[in-house]
Structure formats: structure tokens, C-alpha cells
Amino acid sequence: MRGFNKRSRTLTLSVVALALTSSSAFAAEGDIFEGDILTTLGELILKGGWLMIPIGLASILMLALALERLWALRRGRIIPNAIWEGVRTKLAAGELDAARDEVSDGRFPVSRMLHSGLEEWDRQFEDVSRALDEAGQREADDLSKGLPALQGIASVAPLLGLLGTVVGMIQAFFTVAKERGAMGNPELLAEGIGQALVTTAAGLSVAIPALVLFYAFRGRTRKIVREFDDVARAMLHIKRNRRPDEMAA
Questions:
Q1: Could you tell me the maximum CA-CA distance found in the chain, to the nearest angstrom?
Q2: For residue 49, how many C-alpha atoms fall within 13 Å in the half-sphere facing its CB?
Q3: Are 235 and 114 in contact (CB under 8 A)?
Q4: Residue ranges of domains in the chain
């Protein structure tokens, strides 16, 4: 448990570091505009145009999902050691009703999975195995929620940035075309292109942390699902090795 808490703190710090790194890299782009250093992120956002709005909303959604997943995927909220140890001890002693009472509240995902198996405990081994598999799959699906959204942000944010860049460059060339003597003034064109590239930088600043978070949370989810499998196998081992007449109410 101590190692898990340490990893949780590490992932939390990683989320903060990714956010700060993205903001710093994004703000650093201010050096290319008008020869002045933009001192605020707000000024840089204004340079990017209206497509900075959906990119900004994507960054807020990414942060909200990251914090929610950090809270939801804590092991103590999913597979408390005391729950499984209590059920295993009571099953080994043949106390089926007491084992059912242990998980009747369904507060934790592992409790709901164990309860499904215990409801079929008086039936055949295959029935118990099927109940555990179905309940485990439902809980695994619940643990994975939010991950498709993170993956979507990682895919869509750079496309929004690219779209903003293309639109900005079109506007820059139109501006150059309308200005007399603009072909002899490369600063005018460079300024327009620089402004257009802001959205690309913004999109990548959102997409990269989102992709890192997606893989990190997917890895944690898979680890928890493997622990679910270990619990189910241990429960089925007890079922296989106990005769029906040994189970007492």
C-alpha cells in the first residue's frame, strides 16, 4: 500500500509538472511577436484567435479528467485489503452468510464483484465463474471511463491547432496582398505567420500531456484489473476445493 501511495503522489506531481511545462513552453512563444516579449498568457491567447477557445476548453477538460481519475483509481477505493481478507477468511471457515454480509453494501468495486460470485455460490463452479467474469468486466469498464475522452483530446487538440494555423496563414497572406509594398516588407508576413503558429503550439501543449496521462491511467487501470483477476481466481480456488456440505449458513 505504501508503494502504491508513493506512485499516486508521483503521478499527481507529474500532472502538475506537465501542466506547468505546457504553459511555460506556450508562453515562451511570445518572443517571436513584434520584437517584444509577451509577459502574460492572456496576450498570447489573444494572438491565437478564436480557435484558442476550444483548445483552452480541451485543456480544462483534460485537467478535470486527470484529477478525477487520480481520485477514482486509488487502490483503497477499489480493492481494500480488509474486504477480500474478510471474505476469504469466512469462506474458508464455511460461513457463507457472513461472507455475503461482508460485501452486501457494495461500496467498493471489488465488493460488487465478490457479491455477484457469492450470490451464485450454491450453484455449479461454472455459474460462479461466469458471475465473477461478468461482474469483473462491468467494473473494469467503469474504471476505464474518462480514458476515451483523454485519448480524444490528445487527437483533436493538435488538429484544432493546425486548423488555426492554416486559417491564420490565409489571413496573413490576404493582409500582405492588400498592403502596398508588402512584398518588400518580410516583417509583415513573418508577423502574420508567427501569430498563426500560436494555435499549433497551443494544440500540442494540450495534446502531449493528454496522451501521457492517457497511457499512465490506462496502465494503472490494467494493473487494477489484473488484481481483480487474482481475487476472482483465489475465490474460485476456494469454491473448487470445498465440498458443498462443508458450507454452513
A1: 98
A2: 24
A3: yes
A4: 1-249
pLDDT for 31-76, tens place per residue?
444 444 444 566 667 777 788 889 999 999 999 999 999 998 888 8
CB 22 within 8 A of CB 209: yes
Per-residue cell: 50: 478564436
pTM greater than 0.70 (yes/no): yes
Q: Of the candidates 12, 16, 20, which has an alpha carbon nearest to the alpha carbon of residue 205?
A: 20
End-to-end alpha-carbon separation of the chain, Å? 33
Q: Which residue has the cell 474478510?
A: 86
Assigned C-alpha cell, 180: 502596398
Angle at 228 between CA 115 and CA 224, to 5 degrees: 135
Number of other residues whose CB lies within 10 A of the CB of residue 62:
25
Q: Which residue has 485489503 as its cell numbers?
A: 81
- Burial class from Cβ neighbours inside 10 Å (0-12, 13-18, 19+) for residue 85 reads exposed
DSSP 159-189: HHHHHHHHHHHHHHHHHHHHSTTGGG-HHHH
C-alpha cell read off for 14: 507529474
